[in-house]
Structure to design on (284 residues):
């Protein structure tokens, strides 16, 4: 199938047959565990597991400081671990915690340094028990301080990594439709500031103004719906480029929709079942 603009959707079935994603929005990843194998999920992501699978809760990092770093990256300091203690193949199902969540499988060993950088709270689960989530500044990937503050994700990012190449598949979650794209060295694309979900270390990003100070530029900033900044993603010149993952929806859009619905309900004849839940309460 042609890749329009170079974009493609993430895989839904592993090449080894160890996992499969069913559905898209609010879908589920079904994980196959051979005897002795394990997988992890963030707290609250479990949908089902078969008899013979042991479910445990453990710290999300090796030690208090590692767990605290994982917590600061948007995760719970705890993580669910599912281990196949039977002598036959068994299955576990995990689902996203956030509304309109879409599951993103990423094989870390296929990316620079066995690491991807993601927005805070993106991690959902992983194959095995050795994948780490830590918090870090995004400054090394920024072209300027302005990019660090205004260019997409917050100044803090989630680093997802593995030192065990046998356990290298992480599952992230984001909102709406997810697409990925390889950006070649020196190539640039501009995206909405809320669209970026994850990127490799070989990607640099910058914040560029939506419009200039001319009347047309001011009109674009005020009426174009994109605000003052756009995020510019560039493949670093001293690399082979890298992948980025984008989402088609975000919590700000959902929050705006909920606020509009509540205002319409409050301005009506008093009917309805009360104010809708705020997006911030729906988010993990």
């Amino acid at each position: 199938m042609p890749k329009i603009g170079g974009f493609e959707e993430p895989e839904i079935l592993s090449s080894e047959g160890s996992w499969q994603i069913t559905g898209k929005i609010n879908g589920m990843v079904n994980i196959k565990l051979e005897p002795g194998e394990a997988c992890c999920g963030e707290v609250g992501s479990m949908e089902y597991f078969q008899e013979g699978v042991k479910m445990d809760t453990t710290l999300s990092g090796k030690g208090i400081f590692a767990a605290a770093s994982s917590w600061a990256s948007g995760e719970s300091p705890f993580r669910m671990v599912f281990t196949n203690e039977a002598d036959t193949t068994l299955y576990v199902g995990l689902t996203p915690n956030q509304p309109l969540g879409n599951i993103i499988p990423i094989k870390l060993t296929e990316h620079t340094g066995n690491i991807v950088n993601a927005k805070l709270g993106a991690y959902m689960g992983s194959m095995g028990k050795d994948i780490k989530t830590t918090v870090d500044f995004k400054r090394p990937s920024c072209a300027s301080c302005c990019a660090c503050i205004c260019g997409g994700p917050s100044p803090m990012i989630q680093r997802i990594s593995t030192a065990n190449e046998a356990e290298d598949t992480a599952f992230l979650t984001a909102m709406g439709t997810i697409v990925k794209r390889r950006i070649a060295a020196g190539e640039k694309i501009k995206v909405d500031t809320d669209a970026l979900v994850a990127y490799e270390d070989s990607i640099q990003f910058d914040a560029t103004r939506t419009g200039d100070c001319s009347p047309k530029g001011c009109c674009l900033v005020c009426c174009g719906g994109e605000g003052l900044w756009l995020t510019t993603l560039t493949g670093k010149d001293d690399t082979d480029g890298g992948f980025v993952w984008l989402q088609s929806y975000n919590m700000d859009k959902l929050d705006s929709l909920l606020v509009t619905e509540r205002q319409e309900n409050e301005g009506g004849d008093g009917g309805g079942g009360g104010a809708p839940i705020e997006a911030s309460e729906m988010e993990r």
About this structure: The CA atoms of residues 126 and 170 lie 4 Å apart. Residues 251-266 form the longest helix (16 residues). Helices lie at 64-72, 145-150, 215-223, 251-266, 279-282. The chain has a mean pLDDT of 84.
